[in-house]
Structure formats: structure tokens, C-alpha cells
Amino acid sequence: MKKRIRTITIGTQKLSWVISQRIHSCQAITRLSIFCQQARVIIIFSTWDDPMIGNPLNTGWNVGTPEQPKILNLNHSHLIAEIIHFILEQQLWSLATRKVVILEQGLTILADIGYDITSLKLLD
Questions:
Q1: Residue range 90-115: average pLDDT?
Q2: Residues pairing with 29 in the sheet
Q3: pLDDT digits (tens, 9 = 90+) for 88-101
Q4: 17-39: per-residue pLDDT in tens?
Q5: Cα distance between residue 81 and residue 61, in whole Å
């Protein structure tokens, strides 16, 4: 069984991260919590959910082409590292802060990093 709290090292900082999710009427709401001592950021991803496939960010979803697949899966540490680097570079979060920062547009962060998220958006 995998550990619920995972760790990743960014530069010299050791960070911990946890993924939690809930499903509500074919909508998957995934919370990615990243923390280091008293600094904490919560990123919320809202996408579709399918009874057969599940949450695409939890099971893995190809956002690339068949020739160059890019799998988005929040269980992969390289994606978590990309997200952390991005939010630190964009100054959306600081390791020196002592309060909880909540970023509710997780899919927008993935789009800003460079992923094509059109297939992950909720249908209106």
C-alpha cells in the first residue's frame, strides 16, 4: 500500500504532499495539499469523473498527441515538481509564509505550465 503523505525535494527544501478527492454528480474535485513546516498551499482541480474510468487526474489522462503522449497524473512526482516550480516562480505561494494559500483554479495552473486541458474541463 502506498503512503498517503509523500515527500519531494525541490532545491534544498523537503516538501510533503497529499492528494484527496471527492466525487459529486460526475464531477471530480481533487485537492493537492503541499506543505513544508508551517507553509501550506492547497490547489483545487475540478474536472469530470466517469464511473468506468474514474478521475482523469488520479488515473492518468493523455493530453498530448498519439505521437507525443503527455500523461497528466497527480500521483507522479514529476508533475508535482512542475506545479511547485510554477507556483513559486509566479509568486502564487512562498515557503516563508505562515498562512494557508488556497488556489482554486488548478486546471488553469496546468494550462499555464503548458498542458492542453481542454479534454479535462467540465462540460456546461
A1: 92
A2: 22, 46
A3: 999 999 888 888 99
A4: 999 999 888 889 999 999 998 89
A5: 18
3-state secondary structure the chain: CCCCCEEEEECCEEEEEEEEEEEECCEEEEEEEEEECCEEEEEEEEEECECCCECHHHHCEECCCCCCCCEECCCCHHHHHHHHHHHHHCCCCCCCCCCEEEECCHHHHHHHHCCCCCCCCCCC
Parse the chain into domains and list their residue ranges: 6-113
Residue type present at position 75 = N
Q: Cβ atoms within 10 A of the Cβ of 15, count? A: 20
Hunting for cell 493537492 — which residue is that?
32
